[in-house]
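Quick one:
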Amino acid sequence: MAHIPLLQAALLASGLVAAPTTEPPAVPVFSSELSLVNVAVTVEDRKGQPIPGLTARDFVLSEDGHRQQIDLCARMGAPGSGPSTALDLALLVDTSDSMLETLRRSQESAVRFLTTLPNARELLVVLFDQQQRVEHFDRDHPEALFDRLKAVPDGGNTALRDAITSTLRTIHSSTGRSALVLLTDGIDTASSTSPQALERAVQANSVVIYPVAFPVEAGEGSGAGDALDSLGRLADLSGGRLFKLTGEQALPGVLDEILADLRAQYVLGFAPPSSGAPDRLRKISVKVPGHKDAVVRHRVGYRLKR
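Output:
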């Protein structure tokens, strides 16, 4: 939880309006309504390199074992991809005391990451401890974020699950693509949101989560393993990827990897079947039969609006 430095680094890039939150919001639900369900998909070869040039014919997408017609197929980094690949992203930073200086030293990397995102539409920086401060990142005036960072008070307890749940609702977009980059050690000391409620919120939103785990501070090691497991679970549920930092010097390289992942993603859209209970978990499977050794990452399922 001691990660204020990182977030500040990310935050240092924007002109913003802070919005503290003291109570966790209700668990949000992904609403496909009558529109397409969008699924962000990463396809890599055995060496971890993205496989470009795929079309809808190359994918087999199934819901609960039944193949679905793919009505949309676009690649994120492709020029002129259109609104279906517009990106809403939140950089969620743990602002506990021990992270503050680290974040300040990492600010240039965070700013570079935020200003080079492909097809970016809405960029948010969320600083959190037991409260959340939401900042809108201004790509034309990233220096404003530095001032905001200086004003952030030293953190205390950390409500990690509350912050993630609230941010999922803020950045969710059913017409585009959303991602959440989380800078934290994964330790949660103050959330009222249960792990089960958080998982349900992740399943209910089309948001890809990239947890970046910092080393746990001395004295907090007893919960480090469980914290990493929880962060990995969030990445798996959403189709993202967990990164484990050995130190702050590794952050720029990790942010570059996330940037490359976002640029290489495909967005597949299909019309959701109307059968079944509205709020049940509908499991998704995406395969690329023409590339037998391909590694495919995507969210494991979704929930329709009640």
